[in-house]
Structure formats: structure tokens, C-alpha cells
Amino acid sequence: MLLxxxxxxxxxxxxxxxYHVPLYNFFWKLTFDKALSEDLTQNLFLxxxxxxxxxxxxxxSFRSWIYRMARNAHLDHIRQEQRMPGRGNATDEDxxxxxxTGYAEEQYEKLDQALAQLQPEHREVLVLSRFQGLKYDEIxxxxxxxxxxxxxxxxxxxxxxxxxxxxxx
Length: 169
Known about the structure:
This protein is mainly α and 169 residues long. The chain has two domains: 1-89, Orthogonal Bundle (Rna Polymerase Sigma Factor, Chain: A); 104-169, Arc Repressor Mutant, subunit A, CATH 1.10.10. It contains eight helices and no strands. α4 (62-83) packs across α7. It is globular, with a radius of gyration of 17 Å. The N and C termini lie far apart (47 Å).
């Protein structure tokens, strides 16, 4: 990222290759909308180019920085969506194939339904910690909260997720 910041934009290719799938998955778990997740991912990398000067390695890793930008892009989308409601809901074709992992498809669908019932801040912290594999200190930098506050949020989010998951038929 330091090379990109220095004006070598071709170096962004390596960062894109490394991060575009995890970032797409981050957006998808927040929105459950394939096309929107693709758009948000593309827009995020445009933001990386536009705001490359704001990257400061002393403030945290590139991963923390880009997820903070991803979070902001998602929040911007939510604000815009509130001004212009009317997007359609996700359909079955919006959900990517999960592959053969030993779990039944119904379990994934049930988990997605439970995630969709969570408040946005709970869903976000679970997606960052459990699905994206970010450490609590990285999430604390992204959200601007203490590590202990993040731990409390994750604990509460997991409680709500568990309740939603097991209350489904």
C-alpha cells in the first residue's frame, strides 16, 4: 500500500487480488445482495485510490484501514438507501454456492436468516470477527472503540444470533 500511496497505482492489483473476495463476502454478509456487494467492493477500491494518502501504517495495518473504509462505504450506502428506499430483496440466485463443507444447505440458510434478523451493528461485528477473521484489536481500530467494548458487542451479538437461530423452525 505504501507503493500505491506513493503513486504506483499498478501495485493496487496485488492488493485487489488479495482482498476483493474477503471484502465482497463482508459486504454480502451485511447486505445479502450479490449485485450490491459487487458494487460496494468496486467502489471501495476506487476509494482506496482516491484516499490513498490517508493510509498511515503507524495507525494500524492495511487490513484494518481497508475494512474501516469498507465499513464507511456500507454506512454511506445505508444513508443513501434511507433517502431513496425501494431496492428489491435478495433472491436465491444472489447467494453464492457454499461448497461441500459437511453442513446441510438448510443450516446455511437458517444461519443467513438469523444473521439477517440481527441489528446492523451486531451483524457487522460478527461478520468482521467470525466470517472475515479480524482480531478484536483490528475491529476496535475499525470501529473506533476499545477492545473490551468489541468483546462485549461480539458476546451480545452471538447471544442474539443464537436466539434467532434456534427459534427458527
